[in-house]
Amino acid sequence: MNLIKLLELQQKLRDRIDYNESDRFDKLILATIVETGEAAQMWRSFKYWSKDQEPRRVVEAGICTNCAGTGDQYYDDPEAEEPEACHKCNGEGEELQYPLLEEYVDGLHFILELGLEINFEHLHLVQRIESDDSILKLFIEVTECIITFSRSKHSSHYRILLETYLLLGNKLGYTENEIERAYLEKNKINHIRQNRGY
User: What's the predicted TM-score (pTM) here?
Assistant: First the structure.
């Protein structure tokens, strides 16, 4: 995963949003906690009181709005002899959504935003860490890391938060490429929302 590229894209979104009030940091912390909780909500396995503990990995969302259900997408060349498969529905015509991955990536947006907040420039120090911790423990650990960082605003605590969050994504079963692609897709949506005055 190219964290430098993602951080640069996050900076562009941050510049567009242009919110610099005194409560900015506290709002970012709360947003990060909320988005982490929403990812846990889609993971569902903590819900010991429910028989339905299956993670919400893929759900059908109806006819693909990108290709109108044809499965074809001509992209840049409408004169092409062979249309390419639609990237939103993989040529199936039925759009799928990935709620768990989407919520995880929403959290990543805010974690990157927190890095911008402290001018974190040590991405070369971020390591892929391993852990025997369960996904449940990692959700709790991420929340603890957010709170610890919120109190210190120290780059070492931020690095631990980022590494732990990336480990959580890995434990959820996502590759770095899947996370990056989902981030890029959501980043586009966030810019579209800004265009529409979201």
Answer: 0.84
